[in-house]
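Minutes, project check-in
Item: structure for the 160-residue chain
Input as provided by the requester:
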Amino acid sequence: MYREINSARGVTALREAKHSKAKQLASVITVFILSRLIYYCVGIRFDATPLAHFWQYIDINLLSNNLLQSLYYLHSQPPLFNLFLGLALKFFANHLELVFTVAYLLLGLLFTGSLYLLMHKLGVPDKLNILLAALYIISPAVVLYENILFYTYPIVALLS
């Protein structure tokens, strides 16, 4: 009987912990969404001009017309990122900035969630975890990297 009571308490405590973690994660994601809306209202927009000017990217003409051949012969440049750029150019040529903006915002959501969960796994106390994650995701440096077409932000988001 004693084991059954402790087992029931353990299951209840585990459910409460999972529910609490989900609420905390939702609060961090809410901070992310609200901060991005505020940054948008003050005029921060995605900058896709590096696509035409940065030497790290394959030429727009080659990405549009000879994507696979360009990726094969120019593999010293970031191939997966150039594949992403080439697919965006092929399928969404008229809405590139919108596609890049949405993709980078989704990467930001992924990064926000993984940052919170990583600190939780490392044993950071819950309130400090929420505070640090929120301060990090609203920082101007993170917003800068999230709003410029360069491969550093996707790398960080996918590695975390």
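Outcome recorded: The chain has nine helices and no strands.
No further action items on this chain.
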